[in-house]
Amino acid sequence: MNKTSVGRHRTRARARNSTRRTGWVRKNVVVDQRKLDVARRALGAGTETETIDRALDLVAFREELAKGFSAVRRSGGLADVFERRQKA
């Protein structure tokens, strides 16, 4: 193998790896069509790709919320401002 072909291979590998880390990538997945149809209607998505993207956004948002709630709990929580109203 000569130096030229090795250099090209490394450049392609680097480009391919950097694409995987950011932006849109093509994936072939096996999915339950019934679940995908239900999610598509629930999310109001126009395409299956949009459905999956919105669902993944919701999962990522859920993770952010969980981290936020954990931080609030660690800091001592919140005062129950409705406690007086419930007793009255």
Keywords:
88 residues, mainly alpha, 4 helices, 70% helix
Task: Give your account of this protein's structure.
The chain has helices at residues 3-21, 33-43, 48-74, 83-87. The chain has 88 residues and is an all-alpha fold. α2 packs across α3 (48-74).
Name the poorly predicted regions: none
Shape: elongated
The helix-strand sequence is: HHHH
- Cα Rg: 23 Å
The overall average pLDDT, rounded, is 82
Secondary structure tally: strands: 0
> Which band does the percent of strand residues land in?
under 5%
Give helix % range.
over 70%
Number of DSSP helices? 4
Briefly say what this structure is.
This protein is an all-alpha fold and 88 residues long. It has helices at 3-21, 33-43, 48-74, 83-87. The protein has a domain at 29-75.
Break the fold down into its secondary structure elements and pairings.
Elements: H1 3-21, H2 33-43, H3 48-74, H4 83-87
